[in-house]
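Researcher: Re-running this chain for the archive, since the previous output was lost when a drive failed. Same request as before.
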Amino acid sequence: MKNRFKELFIFTIAIAGLGLANSCSEDFTEVSPLGSTSYANFWKTEQDAQEAVNSMYAYMTDQEMFSRGFFWYINASDDMVTGRIKAAADNIKDFNITGGEGSYTSTCYPNSYKVIRRANDVILNVPNMEISETLKNQYLGEAYFMRAFSYFWVAHTYGDNGPNGGVPIVTELNMNDDAGSYTRPASVIENYQQIEDDLKMAVDLLPVFTSYSADNYGRPHRDAALAYIAKTNLYWAQYDQSRYAEVVRYADAVTNSGSGRALIDTNNPEKDYRELHSHLNNWGSEYIWSVDSGVDGGSILTGVMLENKGWGKYNGWGYYTPSEGLYNEFEDDDVRRGVTILNFGDDFTFFGEERRYQSENSNSGFQFNKYMYEFQFENPVGTYLNTNGDNPSTVYNVPLMRYAEVLLMKAEALIADGKNGDEPLNLVRERAGLAPKSNVTMADLKHERRVELAGEFANRHFDLVRWGDAEEAYSKPIYGRIYSDRSNPDSPYTSEVIWPARNFDPSYMQVWPIPATVIQSSGIAPNQGW
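Model: Regenerated structure tokens:
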């Protein structure tokens, strides 16, 4: 949204003096009571409310949230390997962590609860402010959405239906309870119920995206809330199959919301899928919720996946490189493969120069191409790319929820319920230029979800976990293509193991360890087995 980063910076400085920024511990489940005069006096004007609401989005662009952070967990999947040797990253992929590593994933949990705290502040204080009812509804809707969105990520990442239970539920009603008094609910189902309740509030309060002016793009809207109700129920359904009907219901609600949700599809599959993954469609009909990004900041996933040092042109980081298994999963005539992955010898444009892909750095012989559209232009730095290579965001809003995923969630729910999921699944296939399938199976769904959403926050790792497929998938090594001359795109290669088979124990590895700092400061029970 326009000027958000400037507003967030000003607000962060301002609230430090009010005790809002540091009123809770790093994990947020240890909360100190508020009530100072400064805090009470803050919630007076429309500007106060707007700044409080805008502060909820600060962590969306944090490097250890939706740039890397949560993506390190997705990197554990069979779709990719860590592109560079990094001990902490390698340990995460090998499920060899305790929560005490102190880097990479250590802030995902506490930062999520900081967002929750800010949302709670809005929900507690805005109803009593003397501002218009329209603004109250808008701000409260945003707060309910951001609270639910944050809980969605920590709930499925760290919570289960046993033996660990869910994650602490902190709302405006109990956020000022004594430090250390928060406990974990018996099941993550309680978290999913809370998330659904919050999102339903957001649905009632938020407008559709198409009613926003351009300077408000990036704020939550009704479709985003509906889509995350569908996804929450999809995850919930692994414990309660009756929730599949809710997935279908809310996926249809997205389609019928009146905002014109649709796939980017002009009957030119290669062009459609290529431009889909670019700034050209940041606010298009398919993008439901993204990390609002730009040359001044945003998700750095775009640069993190770029060739290490960017062939001498830009500071790519060289992480998250596709596996040969992912490359081979695509059907031969699937245009999505070339858009998603660069293979040795593939033509592409980089900084205005026509190149053929080769890499002296990639551990797998591949690179994700999905996020590279903005790197094609001549002299793109400052216009399409961040001027700071240590913060390599682009003007492309990295997607967190696309309409294609909504369709695939509906297809999955229908198939799991013994119904026909052909129509929503084939919409996705046909956009890719592929022939439709009849009487699609869960295997068809798993394939389609893998290739359509490869390298995205849709979360391949958790898909394997919730399907019960992780143990088998991770018992197999990961292959890559090792070229005899990595500087030559025409050199021969051999298919070799680039990551050994791993021992995934579903009895406890269905969740990740809660950071040790959180356990120490809050006193909540750790996840067992780690």
